[in-house]
């Protein structure tokens, strides 16, 4: 990264980086609160699932959260430090040995569970 | 631009019959600078730093490109007027370098106007020279552009090499199987016996990219002493030299 990009990203990251967001791990089951605007009203929509990958790229870091909805696997990618992500609540921590949990895509039901960490 | 033109001219003169070229040059009077279209105002030169994102208060993510100015900045190196040069233009230099990296004629041109040794020179052709612009003065981005302005950004696009019609012009592909032998061919290039030639400018395979490209009406998101942040993407790779001017047309 060069000094000019740094100059744009550093102050934003200072403002947006929180302990809560920085500390999440792969394999965690999380509840992500996304702020949604409906007309002139805002509300928080929750999305719960397992983090299957984390893309570390400073301000542009993202997390991919997978869940099964009505029998269909859904993966949503969230910009981790976006102000629209108002909260990330860790519900369970999974014990995983790899950085990308792609193997979960081929598993269903009980087989798609992760062992609890700790 | 002026510099590259001058260089290629010298190269040709050496390569093919010097006397004839010399005569042609004498006929023309003096070296012609490639005339680009009129600009709305004096522009800046900068270096593409790369892309990033800017988050707004309500969580909107905007893709932006950062154009940085290297230490030393941009200078006005010459002001051309209709009386002396036949047209109005402001020549701007960028990228301060060691003296040894420039030729003596280039150094002489810059020293005459009290400029440091600059690697790149470019001209912005104008209807009239703005007042208060002095030769040898440094250009300040914060005075030239403000947030919300629209700018045109030009630079050299990423080179794709010798590309076929499909990649270069978006032609359709032929069948890959079922006996077809026309896989990625370009098809017909025009009628036969009349005119019994291919019209100039017909779309063909050839060099793609690595030529001047301009993106118009980009919104300025942020301006600092040493950089400009614009919304969206610009041509070329990080590290490439760009020119930024106020956008033409209505906005």
UniProtKB/TrEMBL annotation, chain A:
GO terms for biological process: translation. Keywords: Chloroplast, Plastid, Ribonucleoprotein, Ribosomal protein. It holds the Pfam family Ribosomal_L19. It is found in: Plastid, Chloroplast. GO terms for molecular function: structural constituent of ribosome. One of its GO terms (cellular component) is cytosolic large ribosomal subunit. It comes from the Eukaryota. HAMAP family: Ribosomal_bL19 (MF_00402). Belongs to the bacterial ribosomal protein bL19 family. NCBIfam families: rplS_bact. This is Large ribosomal subunit protein bL19c. It comes from Chloropicon primus. The lineage of its organism: Eukaryota, Viridiplantae, Chlorophyta, Chloropicophyceae, Chloropicales.
From TrEMBL, chain B:
InterPro entries: Ribosomal_uL3, Ribosomal_uL3_bac/org-type, Ribosomal_uL3_CS, Transl_B-barrel_sf. Belongs to the universal ribosomal protein uL3 family. Keywords: Ribonucleoprotein, Ribosomal protein, RNA-binding, rRNA-binding. GO terms for cellular component: ribonucleoprotein complex; ribosome. One of its GO terms (biological process) is translation. The keyword Transmembrane helix does not apply. Residues 169-212 are annotated as: Disordered. Pfam families: Ribosomal_L3. This is Large ribosomal subunit protein uL3c. One of its GO terms (molecular function) is rRNA binding. It comes from Chloropicon primus. It comes from the Eukaryota.
């Amino acid at each position: 990264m060069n000094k000019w990009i740094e100059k744009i990203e550093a102050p934003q990251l200072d403002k947006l980086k929180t302990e809560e967001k920085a500390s999440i791990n792969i394999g965690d089951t999380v509840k992500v609160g996304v702020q949604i605007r409906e007309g002139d009203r805002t509300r928080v929509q929750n999305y719960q699932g397992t983090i299957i990958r984390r893309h570390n790229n400073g301000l542009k870091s993202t997390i991919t959260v997978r869940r099964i909805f009505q029998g269909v696997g859904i993966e949503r990618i969230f910009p981790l430090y976006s102000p629209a992500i108002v909260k990330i609540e860790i519900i369970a921590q999974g014990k995983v040995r790899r950085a990308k949990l792609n193997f979960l895509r081929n598993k269903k039901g009980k087989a798609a569970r992760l062992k609890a960490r700790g | 631009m002026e510099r590259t033109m001058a260089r290629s001219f010298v190269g040709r003169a050496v390569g093919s019959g010097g006397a004839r070229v010399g005569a042609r040059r004498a006929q023309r009077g003096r070296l012609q600078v490639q005339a680009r279209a009129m600009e709305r105002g004096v522009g800046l030169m900068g270096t593409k730093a790369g892309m990033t994102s800017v988050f707004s208060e309500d969580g909107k993510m905007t893709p932006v490109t950062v154009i940085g100015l290297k230490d030393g900045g941009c200078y006005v190196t010459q002001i051309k007027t209709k009386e002396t040069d036949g047209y109005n233009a402001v020549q701007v230099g960028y990228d301060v370098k060691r003296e040894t990296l420039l030729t003596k004629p280039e150094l002489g041109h810059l020293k005459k106007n009290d400029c440091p040794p600059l690697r790149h020179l470019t001209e912005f052709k104008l209807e009239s020279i703005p007042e208060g612009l002095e030769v040898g003065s440094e250009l300040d981005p914060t005075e030239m552009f403000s947030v919300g302005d629209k700018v045109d950004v030009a630079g050299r696009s990423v080179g794709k090499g010798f590309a076929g019609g499909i990649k270069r012009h978006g032609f359709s592909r032929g069948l890959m199987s079922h006996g077809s032998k026309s896989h990625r061919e370009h098809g017909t290039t025009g009628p036969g016996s009349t005119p019994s030639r291919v019209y100039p400018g017909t779309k063909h395979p050839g060099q793609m990219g690595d030529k001047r490209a301009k993106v118009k009406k980009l919104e300025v998101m942020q301006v600092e002493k040493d950089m400009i942040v614009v919304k969206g993407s610009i041509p070329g790779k990080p590290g490439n030299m760009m020119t930024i001017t106020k956008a033409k047309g209505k906005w």
